[in-house]
Each structure stands twice: as structure tokens, then as C-alpha cells.
Amino acid sequence: MSTVQQEVDERTNLTGSNKFELLLFRLGGDANGDRSELFGINVFKVREIVAMPAITAVAGALPHMLGVVNLRGQIIPVIDLPAVVGCKPKTGLNIMLVTEYARTTQGFAVESVEEIVRLDWSQVLSAENSNVGGMVTSIARLDGDTENTRLAQVLDVEQILRQITPSDSKDVDPDTIGDKLQLKDGAVILAADDSAVARSLIEQALEAMGANYIMTKTGKEAWDKLQSLATAAQSEGKHVRDKVAMVLTDLEMPEMDGFSLTRKIKQDERFKFLPVVIHSSLSGSTNEEHIKTVGADAYVAKFVAEELANTIRKVLIK
Questions:
Q1: What letter does residue 170 receive in the DSSP assignment?
Q2: Biggest alpha carbon distance in the chain?
Q3: Who contacts 231 (Cβ-Cβ below 8 Å, separation ≥6)?
Q4: CA-to-CA distance for 137 and 146, rounded, in angstroms?
């Protein structure tokens, strides 16, 4: 396990062209104890991997919440990930993945950790396009496009955390989100996010701001849509800025990630003037430095509607 931990530390610096690292783990078999599928989570989200520590049960805990652990002075909630997805560990909950997501730290209990694989985002297909959906955001073809490739299910952490720890407050409150946006007539905000939960929240925020938008599910889909909007603008004798006010993108997405999408936009003479805001659950100084290198105009962590709205306003008035 120490070798895997070392790989996590080393490879979180990866910002290669449309590539990422996927930590593979197993949660156990199905209800009959059969099979044991591979699951994955982006290494960027993993702070560390530890043998399962002693867990303190918390009175009145929500379903699938095992309790809390004291990890070097930090109290961390621990989620029973096999129970969440309907698996039964054969050997027990042996490993805890400590993850940082959307300003929070939590532990995910899993049965075993397998390996870390380096993939191109083109090897990852949207689960929605595959009619899988649910808690799986995408399917990774681990051995490329070969017919007998191994598959890993990339979990939708946003969906899982939202299910485990629902919020009592409004995600988007029109009374606190501020003034309406004044976009050019006919212009839209082009947004990209592979999580259905995230897309819903973004749409609510943009609607509360009075902004027209086009929502896409991957960086590639957003890039293709940007191309078509540029073509339409040219055919109408207009500039692409008459069609697109800005781009709002997640980082982790199948087919093309947000790093690559931003880089392509900023290196294209037609689009380099377009403001790009990265809206991601990936946080920390390392990731923010990576964001600067691809030329994004701003970064905002998920998900506080008022912060997203304020960031959008700032880049649009530059």
C-alpha cells in the first residue's frame, strides 16, 4: 500500500495533454457474493490511502455513514462506499481513501486498492451515453480500445455525497445570488460538466442570474458546440462573441477534460478572447497552479451559487 501511496503523491502533478490518473479499487461482490467489479476515482481527489483506522460511531448518523475517525488531529467522516453502491465486501472494509472534494474532506471505506493507471480521457465514455447512469459518471476502458479491455466504473462523487449528506438549505437562492447578468442579445454562457447533479445546480444558478446558456456533458461536446457557434456566427456576418459570452467548465470529464478544453480555446485565434471560468471540485494550491498554466481567467470551487455568480460577473466585466 505504501507503493500506491507514493504513486498518488507523485502523480497528482500530472497535467499532460488530456491525460489523468485513475485509482482503481474494489468494493466487493453483488448481493449474491458474486463478481467484484473495478471502480475508480481520479487521483487528484485522493489525499492519502490508509489502513482502516478505528471508527467512532456517531449517534443519529445518516444511513451509510460509518462514523468518524481522528486522522492526525482532523476529524473525518467515513462513508461505507460498498453499501452506497450495493456491494458486499468479502474480506471486510480494509482501506480508507481520504479524499478532498468541494471544500470538504471525507473518508471512503473500500475493500481493497488495486493500482493506479494512466489514461487518456478519450478512453473514458460518459455513463449517460452508455445508459448506465446512477452513481457512475463514466466508464473507463483501461486497456484502450481493444475488444477485450477491462472496464472500470468512475463514480460520481458529487452524486454520492449529495445523497449521503443532503443539505437543508437552498442550493440556489434567487434572493441572494445578486443582480441579473446583462449579456449581449443572442449570446449564451457555454457550460460543460459530466455530473448530472452539477449540471442541475449550474443551470439553477444561471437561470437565477437571468443568463441564457447551453449545457454540455463533456469537454469535447463543448468544443464541438463552440465550433458550430463560430461557424453560425460567420455565416451570419457576426463575431463569435455575438454568440458566446464565456465558457464555464468542469475539469474532470470524459473524452476531453477541462484543462484541454481551456488550452484549446486560449490557443485558438478565434476564441482566445473568450473568458473561461473553471468550476471544479478539485481544490488545493497544486490544482490552482495547473489552472493558471492553461490560461483560465478564473477558478471557483464547487458549489456555492453566490461565489459562482460573483466570479462570472467579474470575468464578464473585465
A1: -
A2: 66
A3: none
A4: 21
